[in-house]
Amino acid sequence: MRLRLKPGGRAMTALLGLLTAMGPLSTDMYLPSLPFIGSHFGVDASQVQLTLSIFLVGFAIGQIFYGPLSDRFGRRPVLLIGLGLFALTSAGCMLATSIGWLIAARFGQALAACSAIVIARAIVRDLFKAEQAGRILSIMGALMGIVPALAPILGGAIQPLFGWRAVFGAIGILACCTMAMVFVMLPETLPVERRRSASPRGMIESFAVLLRNRTFRAYVAIVCLCYAGLFAFISGSSFIMQDYFGLDTMAFSISFAIAVIGYVTGTLTGARFGVRLGLVRMVRIGATLLALGGASMTLLLVLSSPSFWHILVPITVYMVGVGLTLPQCMAGAITPFPERAGAASSLMGFLQMSFGAAVGILVGHTVHLGPLPLAVIILVLGTACCLTVRSSALRGEHHHG
């Protein structure tokens, strides 16, 4: 007898939140280990940073396929295969004998891990209408934030005791546990009569329909800019906080967790007030905080002698903005396309991660110059996101001026 979860129940939302957290978890948990991986293999920060950016590239490419495959074969079987591969590739990361091997294994890990987030979002679209989907995605976003907030603390505890390989071992064990939970508890949410062809031509046609839609383009542009600022911080924070400001692994992990609590605060506020205030207003407030966070970080670093607080306080403001903006825009991009939910989730994820990876590589090459380049990158992205929100006529709102 299988314990099947009820759609919209707390347990179902929690499991979907855990699935959404798989990608961030496999990145954030090993952040405290980055400088140690560099010294272990005798390579510089930009090469170690590639293990982060290549992960996003893999995450982007994989998302293109899982959405349409799950539209064709159902959510459950595709998700189970993805989680199985995630566990195997995590073991591959753990056994790496060179930085090249680790970079390749991280690419494979990403190709597998992205199955979870794409299919979790498609399941939300299977089960809920627009505003409700925004609420559920915000709650999932909060869970997706809590797990990565704890992940570096867990990684920071494992690193001094067992070393960086054990961190990847722990990720692999978690993947196996999640796979078991999905197998036992998650029902299939896509009925056979609603399944679509996964042919390359069908995929390309779906993507073309989405890209021609102005609302979809606007929401996806906001998602890309907002996420890239977040990923810039993820890419640079470990080196800036530990190598430049001299924090130890645990102090870094706690400061990272504080920033992530800002993100969780934003997502919970979005979940609470999103339906009442409306999606567009939430996004506007969030985007203003993104620009404010970037501007205040840059000004503090320029006007006074740099301290890690000058990074931490503004990035926490930025992260509240991410929490308000990201889930709402994801819901805004996906919900107009019920018959293409998988493809919309895939295409948005592909563009979001590709842009984030490019920004991450830029951060990897500037991180040795200290905290100011990172602040300027976050300022530019936050401001661009704010301007995009102001200039786009988002759905459900007449644009004035």
Question: Can you describe this structure in just a few lines?
Answer:
This protein is an all-alpha fold and 401 residues long. The chain has helices spanning 10-28, 34-41, 45-73, 75-94, 99-127, 130-162, 164-185, 200-211, 214-244, 249-277, 279-303, 309-334, 341-366, 371-391. The protein has a single domain (10-187, 198-391), classed as MFS general substrate transporter like domains (Growth Hormone, Chain: A, Up-down Bundle), CATH 1.20.1250.
Key traits:
401 residues, mainly alpha, Growth Hormone, Chain: A, 14 helices, globular, disordered C terminus
What does this structure look like?
This protein is an all-alpha fold and 401 residues long. The chain is built from 14 helices and no strands. Helix 1 runs antiparallel to helix 7, helix 4 runs antiparallel to helix 5 and helix 6 packs antiparallel against helix 7.
Structural class of the helix and strand makeup? mainly alpha
The CA-CA distance between the termini, in Å, is 59 Å
Specify the CATH homologous superfamily. Answer: MFS general substrate transporter like domains
CATH structural class: Mainly Alpha
Give the count of helical stretches. Answer: 14
List the helices and strands in order: HHHHHHHHHHHHHH
Can you name the CATH architecture? Answer: Up-down Bundle
Write the layout of secondary structure elements.
Elements: H1 10-28, H2 34-41, H3 45-73, H4 75-94, H5 99-127, H6 130-162, H7 164-185, H8 200-211, H9 214-244, H10 249-277, H11 279-303, H12 309-334, H13 341-366, H14 371-391
